[in-house]
Specification:
By secondary structure, the chain is α/β, with parallel strands linked by helices. It is 45% helix and 16% strand. The radius of gyration is 18 Å and the shape is globular.
Amino acid sequence: MNAVRSTLFMAYAIVWSVLSAPLVVIAGPLLGGVWAYRFGRVWRLGTQWGVENLLGIRARVIGRENMPAEACVIMAKHQSAWETMTLQDCVPNGAFCVFVLKKELLKLPLVGWGLAAMKMISIDRAAGKNALDQVVTQGRERLKQGFYVIIFPEGTRVPPGEKRRYKPGGAYLATHVGCKVVPVAHNAGEYWPRQAFLKTPGTVTISIGPAFDASGMSDAEVNQRVEDWIEAEMRRISPHRYPDAGASA
């Protein structure tokens, strides 16, 4: 049954993207930048309809009250493509979100072109220190415009129960701009595995942690605070993935 669900969703997602993604690409130049985001939301919500109704994957959100009313930096666990869609529903008042992503993604047909039209924060990861400056330059502008900035500090999708080094990009942006930071944990990889065709129906838990002001903090302090909260929360929502969870409780 999962194979049927996954096949139907893949077909649906391709057709929906072919129909809706071009609207995102042309909306910005013709109607103004905000229309690219509006059509992008239509594209995303249409895809999420397929996720919920064809794949049977839905979300349960804990701590929604922790999300600030003003634009901030959201630093989240990254396990699948699922959270790139659904995390955007966690911000208040219908606000828009932008992601920090590698610029190579902008070259992908349809999806990449749509991301470029929505002016995501794209960086050259080979640029070293200059890549961090790119994040700050673009991130400051987006935050001033009222966009929430979502960044995955581990830099790649990580299977449930595993962890990568938390990179400094999100912390660097927050400390240089002086804004709030929100850590987010979730277990999407339990149902939408990394680079897997087959998905499993179920309810993903998204846990939003307490926001804190990065002003006056060092990059290392922000990163450590985010990592400590996310990794502890992952052990709470997915204890079966962490053999040491019971001992550390």
